[in-house]
Amino acid sequence: MALALAQNPKVLLLDEPTTFLDLHYQLQLLELLKRLNRQRGLSIITVLHDINMAARYSDRIALLRQGQLWAVGSPAEVLTPTLMRQVFDVEVALLHTPVGLQMCPLTASPLTSEV
């Protein structure tokens, strides 16, 4: 990432940058990215599978289901119980926390198999 930033890019594309990092370092990295976005005006497009981290650090979120774009918007617009059910087959409770909107998964829809 240092090599990319040294080139003063306008856009940074990251695929799962927090994978294999302990929680402390995940938070540090995402705080750094947020700071770079705000201070340098750097656009950052990041793939994150941790929805709560995405909600905490993203201005906009895109939800994909089976390779199809399902919804795009602010965390409050797209992280709804209805969309979580449609996209991820889970029931969630939304929590308003000091760091913003977060989700608590309640149940997963049963797996279906065709016999």
Distinctive features:
115 residues; 5 helices; alpha+beta; two-stranded parallel ribbon
Task: Please explain how this structure is put together.
The chain has 115 residues and is an alpha+beta fold. The chain has 2 domains: 47 residues, no CATH class; 48 residues, no CATH class. The protein is 37% helix and 33% strand. It has a two-stranded parallel ribbon. The N and C termini lie far apart (47 Å). The model has no long low-confidence stretch (mean pLDDT 93).
Task: Please outline the helices and strands.
Elements: H1 2-6, E1 11-15, H2 23-40, E2 43-47, H3 51-57, E3 61-65, E4 68-73, H4 75-78, H5 81-88, E5 90-97, E6 100-108
Parallel strand pairs: 1-2
Antiparallel strand pairs: 3-4, 5-6
User: Rg, please?
Assistant: 16 Å
Strand content: 25-35%
Count of distinct structural domains: 2
**Measured distance between first and last alpha carbons:** 47 Å
If you average the pLDDT, what whole number results? 93
Inertia-based shape: globular
Number of strands: 6
Strands ordered across the widest β-sheet: 1-2
Q: How many DSSP helices?
A: 5
Q: Topology as H/E string? A: HEHEHEEHHEE
Structural class: alpha+beta
Give the proportion of residues in helices. 25-40%
In the predicted model, the low-confidence regions spanning at least 5 consecutive residues are none
Largest sheet at a glance? 2 strands, parallel
